């Protein structure tokens, strides 16, 4: 942290302290005892949470279709004394579970959607599950379960009178392209929350100081005229020509956008038969950049390419915004506090059998992988470059937010791969889930017991947001509940 930023945050934090006198922090010995108890409790319940995670892994439900997964997490929370509000923000599989009263209010984020096209058995070989298309290639079966476990442990401590406040577990569907959290933010469900804690499965253990990048996604639909492709092609107007012309123009545009921009697409419908001029075709686009304003600019140019493609092919075009997320606003104050807790928890150790499985998985990657022992390490605190996008970004522009990565996959394993799916379905993944649950719980304990930490984090948050007024990139559209259809 540079000196200018340090002094600015110090002044802002001092102002917060003066205007809102804080209760004294809980004695360090008591906090240590709370954390020791939490770790012991979570270890004692590990088998129960492992079963929950594996059930969700077996459900493998895609975004906004996570009926069984959401219901199981809700039941787990209700059985442990939470009041659960289901179907929030016009999303049947979203929920908010609450326990306690008063300040501070700490939110825990839970995800549970799977990815299409990644069906995989819990095997060291690539082998699909018959009759199942999707798979947990991002480990959200572990994500949601660890977050629920952390929420339940915090509830126990509040109930026992260890500290006061409110814990909220946010059931967040459709992170994978559906922007579920954006709708929760837009519905005002994070109003009054003082800080949010989250995590993500990974192939290493680290405090999350790499920003997710902003993203807008849309489906572009071209409409033409069908005809016999051989007998009367002149009477047809190919919707697929419109899609291909758009793709060609966007691909030429890549040379003329900021180098950090990422644009990718799939043709979701290109017609039904080669001898029929297709009267409908659809292409699904993602546009990303580390800055939301650059995303807006690049996406507007993609729209212009689509309009030009329609004009040039004699077709018509319409498009539907599917998702839109902000970049992740990092909070160094909270991230450094989380780092301390992560180092206390430590990484993951494997049995000899798991090491053997892990080496088989690494051999399938097709590139050199780090030593398996890397999973036992906690990476040093560092600010790094991000690559993916997440709707956690929108939460981070609403409340101070902090997260971690935990080694749920064998070192070297990329996300969104069959190897990630198989790790997420074994104890290899569940061990990392426990690391995450412990670290989130300990970090939340700090937020409940140290008002100064929360005030400093809030000061940094306000400094970084500045004069920006949050506005969702997906506009006022309703949740895209059928975007995976």
Labels describing this entry:
485 residues, alpha/beta, Aminopeptidase, Alpha-Beta Plaits, 7-stranded mixed sheet, 4-stranded antiparallel sheet, 14 helices, 41% helix, 17% strand
The CATH homologous superfamily of the largest domain is named Zn peptidases
Query: What class do helices, strands and sheet pairing give?
Result: alpha/beta
The major beta sheet can be summarized as:
7 strands, mixed
Helix content: 40-55%
Order of helices and strands: HHHHEEEHEHEEEHEEHEHHHEHHH
* Strand content range: 15-25%
CATH topology of the largest domain: Aminopeptidase
Distance between the termini: 46 Å
CATH structural architecture of the largest domain: 3-Layer(aba) Sandwich
Shape field: globular
Low-pLDDT residue spans: none
Radius of gyration using CA atoms only: 24 Å
- Count of β-strands: 11
In short:
With 485 residues, the chain is of the alpha/beta class. The chain is 41% helix and 17% strand. The chain has 2 domains: 23-210 and 328-465, Zn peptidases (Aminopeptidase); 214-325, Alpha-Beta Plaits (2-Layer Sandwich).
Tell me what the structure shows.
This protein has 485 residues and is α/β, with parallel strands linked by helices. The protein folds into two domains: 23-210 and 328-465, 3-Layer(aba) Sandwich (Aminopeptidase), CATH 3.40.630.10; 214-325, 2-Layer Sandwich (Alpha-Beta Plaits). It has helices at 3-19, 28-44, 46-59, 67-79, 140-159, 180-186, 239-253, 292-313, 332-345, 352-363, 392-396, 418-424, 427-449, 451-465, and strands at residues 83-86, 95-101, 105-111, 165-172, 195-202, 206-207, 214-223, 262-269, 280-289, 316-325, 401-407. The strands form two sheets. Strands 1-2-4-3-5-11-6 form a seven-stranded mixed beta sheet, sandwiched between helices. A four-stranded antiparallel beta sheet has the order 8-9-7-10. The two termini are 46 Å apart. The mean pLDDT is 95.
């Amino acid at each position: 942290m540079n000196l200018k930023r340090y002094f600015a945050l110090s002044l802002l934090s001092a102002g917060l302290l003066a205007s809102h006198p804080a209760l004294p922090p809980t004695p360090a010995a008591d906090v240590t005892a709370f954390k020791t108890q939490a770790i012991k409790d979570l270890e004692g319940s590990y088998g129960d949470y492992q079963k929950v995670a594996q059930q969700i892994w077996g459900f493998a439900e895609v975004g906004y279709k996570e009926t069984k997964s959401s219901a199981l997490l809700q039941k787990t929370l209700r059985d442990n004394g939470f009041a659960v509000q289901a179907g929030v923000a016009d999303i049947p599989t979203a929920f908010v579970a609450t326990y306690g009263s008063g300040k501070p209010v700490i939110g825990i984020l839970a995800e549970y959607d799977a990815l299409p096209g990644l069906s995989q058995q819990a095997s060291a070989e690539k082998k699909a599950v018959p009759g199942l298309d999707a798979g947990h290639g991002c480990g959200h079966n572990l994500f949601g379960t660890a977050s629920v476990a952390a929420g339940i442990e915090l509830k126990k401590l509040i109930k026992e009178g260890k500290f006061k406040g409110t814990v909220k577990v946010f059931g967040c569907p459709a992170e994978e392209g559906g922007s579920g959290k954006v709708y929760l933010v837009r519905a005002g469900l994070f109003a009054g929350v003082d800080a949010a804690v989250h995590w993500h499965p990974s192939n290493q253990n680290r405090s999350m100081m790499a920003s997710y990048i902003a993203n807008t996604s849309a489906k572009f639909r071209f409409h033409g005229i069908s005809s016999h492709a051989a007998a009367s092609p002149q009477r047809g107007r190919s919707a697929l020509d419109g899609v291909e012309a758009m793709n060609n123009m966007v691909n030429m545009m890549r040379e003329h956008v900021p180098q950090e921009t990422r644009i990718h697409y799939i043709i979701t419908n290109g017609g039904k038969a080669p001898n029929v001029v297709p009267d409908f075709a659809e292409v699904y686009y993602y546009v990303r950049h580390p800055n939301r304003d650059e995303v807006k600019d690049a996406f507007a140019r993609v729209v212009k390419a689509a309009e030009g493609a329609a004009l040039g092919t004699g077709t018509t075009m319409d498009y539907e915004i599917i998702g839109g997320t902000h970049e992740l606003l990092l909070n160094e104050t909270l991230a450094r506090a989380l780092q301390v807790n992560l180092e206390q928890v430590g990484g993951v150790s494997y049995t000899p059998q798991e090491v053997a499985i892990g080496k088989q998985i690494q051999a399938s990657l097709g590139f050199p992988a780090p030593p398996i022992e890397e999973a036992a390490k906690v990476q040093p605190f560092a600010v790094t470059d991000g690559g993916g996008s997440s709707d956690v970004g929108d939460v981070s522009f609403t409340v101070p937010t902090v997260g971690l990565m935990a080694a749920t996959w064998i070192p070297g394993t990329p996300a969104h791969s069959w190897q990630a799916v198989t790790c997420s379905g074994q104890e290899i993944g569940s061990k990392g889930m426990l690391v995450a649950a412990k670290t989130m719980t300990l970090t939340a304990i700090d937020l409940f017991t140290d008002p100064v930490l929360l005030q400093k984090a809030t000061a940094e948050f306000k400094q970084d947001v500045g004069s920006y007024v949050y506005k969702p990139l997906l506009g006022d559209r309703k949740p895209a509940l059928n975007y995976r259809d």
